[in-house]
């Protein structure tokens, strides 16, 4: 059986982990959720020392995640991966691994909303910076260029975003 992998990506504060966690809590039949960051995120110095750069680390780990999920570790039909990774890395890894059923969904929101979530909700004000704003803009640009589905979480609650993800999964199954 061929499994479907849906990678939910977006900048910090877009709602990825909260939405995937809400979807996971629903225990949908045949759907399993995984979290990219569960492997641990090394420091920038470690990424540079061990992988040459943070980008190389992200590309390598993205491919490892897709390989793991393609191996169907839970005998599921659909695997959802919450991961802040480049769509181009996902596509390249899927091609190298010969995977035809890998989908990417971008969660995005207005910068002010993302900032508020990072400061008040997550208590990570250090992530409110121009680098994260540029990363969010870059991801949106890649999503637009690659014609990827985008869920704008600006005015949606977590359950609404989980509903949108569930609807996407239903469509792809």
Biggest beta-sheet profile: 5 strands, parallel
Fold-level CATH name: Rossmann fold
Task: Give the strand tally.
Answer: 5
Q: So what's the overall shape?
A: globular
Structure, described:
With 173 residues, the protein is of the alpha/beta class. It has a single domain (4-172), classed as 3-Layer(aba) Sandwich (Rossmann fold), CATH 3.40.50.300. Helix content is 51%, strand content 15%. The protein contains seven helices and five strands, in the order βαβααβαβααβα. It has helices at 16-25, 44-51, 54-70, 87-97, 111-121, 130-145, 158-172; strands at residues 4-9, 31-35, 78-82, 102-108, 150-152. The longest helix is centred in the middle third of the chain and has 17 residues, at 54-70. It starts with a strand and ends with a helix.
Keywords summarizing the entry:
173 residues; alpha/beta; Rossmann fold; five-stranded parallel sheet; 15% strand
Summarize this structure briefly.
With 173 residues, the protein is of the alpha/beta class. Helix content is 51%, strand content 15%.
List the helices and strands and how they pair.
Blueprint: E1 4-9, H1 16-25, E2 31-35, H2 44-51, H3 54-70, E3 78-82, H4 87-97, E4 102-108, H5 111-121, H6 130-145, E5 150-152, H7 158-172
Parallel strand pairs: 1-3, 1-4, 2-3, 4-5
Helix pairs in contact: 1-7, 3-4
């Amino acid at each position: 059986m061929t499994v479907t992998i849906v990678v939910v990506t977006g900048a910090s504060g877009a709602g990825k982990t909260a939405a995937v966690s809400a979807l996971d809590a629903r225990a949908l039949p045949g759907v399993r959720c995984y979290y990219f960051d569960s492997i641990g995120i090394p420091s920038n110095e470690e990424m540079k020392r061990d992988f040459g750069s943070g980008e190389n680390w992200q590309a390598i780990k993205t491919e490892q995640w897709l390989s793991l999920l393609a191996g169907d570790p839970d005998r599921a039909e659909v695997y959802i991966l919450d991961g802040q990774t480049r769509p181009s890395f996902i596509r390249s890894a899927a091609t190298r691994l010969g995977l035809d059923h890998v989908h990417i969904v971008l969660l995005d929101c207005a910068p002010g909303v993302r900032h508020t979530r990072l400061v008040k909700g997550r208590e990570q004000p250090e992530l409110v910076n121009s680098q994260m704003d540029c990363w969010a803009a870059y991801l949106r640009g890649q999503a637009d260029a690659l014609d990827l589905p985008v869920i704008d979480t600006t005015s949606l609650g977590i359950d609404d975003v989980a509903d949108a993800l569930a609807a996407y999964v239903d469509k792809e199954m």
